[in-house]
Design goal:
single chain, rod-shaped, 12 strands, alpha+beta, 4 helices, Pan_app
Length: 253
């Protein structure tokens, strides 16, 4: 029995201890913290970096952008240079001259007319020619409505610009127009004066001049057209036929 008590007391001493006041206190056991195992380090990703044509992506795109800018700049420079060169060439080259094209007077050529071609200023000369059978003579008839011209003896003519009354063409009275004479003159006024002079020098039984057609393009009418003159004295007024700017007609009022 004594042995059993001894064992019990010993056990109690193990489980408890007596404090200073004689009271049993539970023994204090401290749990020792077990350290966590060290975290395994994540192995470094040693996969190779992405490359384009042997270059890293940023380097590749930087070079590509620079190359594109260089190409664009070169193209713009070439375009501007070519444009300036063409503009300079256009401004330096003289403007092509437009040759004067003239149609022959519809009046039929006179078989008995003599070719009076001689040297004279070019038809492109700025000043009207006053001699020869080549070039442009003066022509004062440039208005759109009829006007009256009074000859030196008082004879009045009604003028029609840009108009032709061709030989054998329709007359105002329904018959045909006939040429009485063909002359080479250098103004429309001289042509009308020639009609007056013709009437002053004919016999009583001869047909008087009643109208004229004048063409200032000597080259077209005489040198090329072989009309035998550029002033045509006519026996009557014709039906107006629209003609080129160098042509004009008039009749005695």
């Amino acid at each position: 029995m004594a042995t059993t008590k001894t064992i019990i007391r010993w056990k109690m001493r193990v489980d408890c201890h007596i404090d200073a006041h004689g009271q049993d206190q539970p023994s204090r056991y401290y749990k020792q913290d077990v350290p966590n195992p060290p975290a395994k380090e994540k192995p470094e990703d040693k996969s190779p970096a992405k490359q384009i044509l042997g270059l890293s992506v940023p380097v590749f795109w930087t070079i590509a952008v620079i190359a594109v800018l260089v190409v664009l700049g070169t193209g713009v420079g070439i375009g501007v240079g070519v444009g300036l060169s063409q503009s300079r060439s256009s401004s330096d080259s003289p403007a092509p001259s437009t040759p004067t094209t003239a149609d022959p007077d519809p009046t039929d050529p006179d078989p008995a007319a003599t070719d009076l071609t001689s040297e004279s200023p070019s038809s492109t000369s700025s000043a009207p020619v006053t001699s020869g059978t080549v070039g442009l003579a003066a022509n004062s008839c440039t208005f759109s409505t009829p006007r009256t011209f009074t000859a030196s003896d008082g004879t009045a003519f009604t003028q029609f610009c840009f108009t032709d009354w061709p030989n054998n063409g329709e007359a105002e009275d329904g018959s045909e127009v006939s040429d009485l004479r063909r002359l080479t003159l250098y103004t429309f006024e001289d042509c009308m004066e020639a009609c007056v002079s013709f009437n002053n020098n004919i016999e009583a039984d001869e047909t008087p001049c009643k109208a004229v057609t004048y063409n200032s393009n000597l080259t077209s009418i005489i040198a090329v057209g072989k009309q035998g003159g550029n002033c045509f004295l006519k026996d009557k007024k014709g039906v107006n036929v629209l003609a080129i700017a160098e042509s004009a007609s008039a009749y005695v009022v």
